[in-house]
Amino acid sequence: MIQKERKSHEVLVENGKLMYKQSGMLVNSSEGSKSIFVLSTTRALYVGQKKGQFDHLSFLSGGATTAAGRLVAHDGVLEAIWPYSDHYG
Question: Where does the protein principally reside (predicted)?
Answer without folding.
Answer: cytoplasm
